[in-house]
Write a structure and sequence with these properties.
Elements lengths: L1 H25 L4 E8 L6 E9 L7 E7 L7 E2 L4 E3 L2 E6 L7 E10 L2 E4 L3 E4 L10 E4 L2 E5 L6 E6 L4 E2 L6 E3 L2 E14 L2 E14 L5 E4 L2 E4 L6 H4 L5 E3 L5 E3 L7 E4 L2 E4 L10 E3 L4 E6 L8 E2 L3 E2 L5 E3 L2 E3 L12 E4 L3 E6 L8 E2 L3 E2 L4 E4 L2 E4 L6 H4 L5 E3 L5 E3 L7 E4 L2 E4 L6 H4 L5 E3 L5 E3 L7 E4 L2 E4 L4 E2 L20 E7 L2 E5 L2 E4 L5 E3 L4 E8 L8 E7 L2 E10 L6 E2 L4 E5 L10 E8 L10 E2 L8 E2 L2 E2 L12 E2 L6 E2 L2
Parallel strand pairs: 43-58
Antiparallel strand pairs: 1-2, 2-6, 3-4, 3-7, 5-6, 7-8, 7-9, 10-11, 11-12, 13-15, 14-15, 15-16, 17-18, 19-20, 21-22, 23-24, 24-25, 24-26, 27-28, 29-30, 30-31, 30-32, 33-34, 35-36, 37-38, 39-40, 41-42, 44-45, 45-54, 46-53, 47-52, 48-49, 48-51, 49-50, 50-52, 50-53, 53-57, 55-56
Length: 628
């Protein structure tokens, strides 16, 4: 019995010891795994961990230690959030671009344990806090965290006002307008005003620019060449000559100084003075006018009749009482005033003050006009007193117009102007009607061309936001190449653009050519797209298409090339030519006059073989566009 009690007691003690021993073995520290950080930014990262075994006891705390070295000695996190076995902590206030180390910890009744040390590197700053930069036409500012750019100022877009009146410069016609070039540069907005001056018309040979118009060159006459010594006269070139004044006692008549006296008779005429002698008409006092001489007596036995001495008398007038004017100041009456039986004219009876003699009677006075007082120097005109003035003729090269000598003008014809449609000046103040175009065609600069449909604007934005470079209008003088002594004429428009801006197809079609825009200058590439009935040319670009490609309206086909190294501003040359594609579609300009060769001064010019401006090219700026 004692033996049994002993065994039972021993068993109890052994069992108790086993229970106590078993309890201490089961409660172990947790097993922890450190997991990669997530949501890493410039100043934040989420630390991650997981408890892969709780060690047989409940997990009562989870934390991370971290630092800038692998010892993770910079700090401990506070209690973390967790879900099941996983836990995490958002670590903030970090330095951008720096490497950090961390490890996960967990605790149960048996104590703490941790996972391996891992690391992460925060993102570098996107930008320096509060710094500025240009982005397109905007100024952007970096936020205080250096993590994002924000638009803080919009610089606006470039624009131009309206063109002013035409004016003359270097003997050609120009007009100009004030433009503002706006954008962003050196991290700030700029608004730079400038004058956009454009050539309107090149005055042809034999013309000069006057008051903003090309007019036929005129060599003014002088008083000497006109043969005038007094008065004011046209110089034949819209100017007025002052040929001087006359001395006292003389007046200016048809450019000549003549006496102010009045002729009393016709030079050489004779009249009787009584019956004993006669008088002869002439200028005896040197005043330029005629008067009767002193009496010349008839020989003995003769008497004067009809202004001559004879043995018998002759009637000097036909009817007694008849009157005739003697000059303009008085009259004579027919009658028998001497001892013979014949009729003769009486002495002069002067007209009253304010009267003149007309038709043998004194009437209210009329002072006849002169060519000088009328300002006439050619042709015939009324003197205002029933008389006729002869104001002379014009010299060679001048014609009489409204009694004034003006430069002769030969009107041009439609053929000479090279026009087949529309209304145009003939160069002599008249208008030519050069006809209309057939159905399906339109008149462009005097030529009937196939109608071009509405196109898509080839650059970003709207046409109203774009400007044409100076000298880049359709028809402007293209001074890079001369033919026959004259510059070629531009067959497109040069639209100001920025390098790398997109270029869009203006219409659907097929790419017929991709070529170098110049063999001499760094002018980028050219693209020609053929559509139904016309071609569109894009010059000074970097092509994104190849020959044979089909393109659709609005498709991006190129970007603007940087051609500033050639001395030119960056731009898109846009050309539109009606008809099927040919090598002419690649031209940027055509000659005004043909040259003798297609190769001059070391470069290919096509001066001989190319057609004259404008061939089938139309002004792209005048066409209709859609925008997107």
């Amino acid at each position: 019995m004692r033996y049994l009690r002993f065994n039972i007691g021993s068993i109890f003690l052994i069992t108790l010891c086993l229970i106590l021993f078993s309890s201490s073995v089961i409660a172990a520290v947790p097993t922890v795994e450190t997991r990669s950080a997530t949501s890493i930014s410039q100043t934040l990262a989420v630390l991650n961990g997981a408890v892969t075994s709780d060690g047989g006891a409940a997990i009562d705390e989870r934390r991370f230690d971290w630092g800038t070295t692998s010892s993770c000695a910079d700090g401990w996190t506070s209690a973390v959030s967790y879900s099941g076995a996983y836990f995490s902590y958002a670590l903030i206030g970090l330095t951008p671009g720096k490497t950090y180390y961390f490890r996960a910890w967990a605790h149960n009744s048996a104590g703490w344990s941790h996972g391996n040390v891992l690391s992460f590197t925060t993102q570098s700053q996107l930008c320096t806090p509060n710094s500025k930069r240009c982005n397109g036409a905007n100024v952007e500012t970096c936020n205080s965290a250096g993590s994002a750019w924000t638009v803080t100022q919009s610089c606006g877009s470039s624009s131009c006002g309206s063109f002013g009146s035409n004016y003359c410069k270097t003997n050609n016609v120009y007009h100009s307008r004030t433009c503002n070039n706006r954008g962003c540069s050196s991290n700030a907005c700029y608004d730079t005003p400038y004058t956009d001056e454009q050539l309107v018309q090149t005055c042809a040979s034999g013309q000069t620019c006057s008051n903003g118009n090309c007019v036929t060159t005129c060599t003014p006459k002088t008083c000497s060449t006109l043969g005038y010594s007094c008065g004011s006269w046209s110089d034949g070139c819209s100017g007025t000559l002052n040929c001087g004044t006359c001395p006292t006692g003389k007046t200016c008549s048809n450019g000549q100084c003549v006496s102010t006296c009045t002729n009393q008779c016709t030079s050489g005429a004779k009249q009787c003075s009584g019956t004993t002698g006669y008088q002869t008409c002439g200028d005896y006092n040197g005043d330029g006018c005629t008067e009767w001489s002193s009496l010349t007596n008839c020989p003995t036995g003769q008497f004067c009749s009809g202004g001559v001495c004879s043995s018998s008398c002759t009637n000097e007038c036909s009817t007694s009482g008849q009157k005739q004017c003697s000059g303009s100041a008085g009259y004579q009456t027919c009658g028998n005033y001497d001892a013979d039986s014949c009729l003769e004219w009486s002495s002069v009876t002067s007209c009253a003050s304010g009267q003149v003699c007309s038709g043998g009677n004194c009437v209210a006075g009329c002072t006849p006009k002169t060519c000088s007082s009328l300002g006439y120097n050619c042709g015939t005109a009324s003197d205002g007193c029933s008389g006729t003035l002869n104001c002379g003729t014009c010299s060679t090269g001048y014609t009489c117009s409204s009694n004034k000598c003006v430069a002769a003008c030969t009107p041009k014809t439609c053929s000479q102007l090279g026009k087949s449609c529309g209304s145009w000046s003939d160069g002599c103040s008249s208008t030519l009607n050069c006809g209309t175009c057939a159905s399906g065609k339109t008149c462009s600069n005097g030529q009937c061309v196939s109608s071009v449909p509405t196109l898509r604007w080839p650059l970003p934005g709207n046409k109203s936001n774009r400007v044409i470079l100076s000298g880049g209008n359709f028809g402007d003088a293209w001074t890079w190449t001369y033919c026959g002594g004259l510059p070629k004429k531009h067959v497109g428009v040069d639209i100001k653009a920025n390098a790398n801006e997109a270029v869009y197809a203006s219409y659907s079609g097929t790419v017929r050519a991709v070529y170098s825009a110049s063999s001499t200058y760094n002018w980028g590439k050219g693209i020609v797209v053929e559509s139904s009935g016309f071609t569109v040319t894009y010059l000074h670009v970097k092509s994104l298409v190849s020959v044979g490609n089909s393109v659709t309206k609005g498709q991006k086909i190129a970007t603007i090339a940087d051609i500033t190294s050639s001395g030119s501003s960056n731009h898109l040359h846009l050309g539109v030519r009606t008809g099927a594609y040919s090598s002419l579609s690649q031209r940027g300009a055509l000659p005004q006059l043909h040259g003798t060769s297609d190769y001059e001064n070391g470069k290919t010019t096509y001066c001989k073989s190319d057609p004259l401006f404008q061939d089938n090219f139309v002004d792209p700026w005048a066409l209709t566009y859609t925008f997107s």
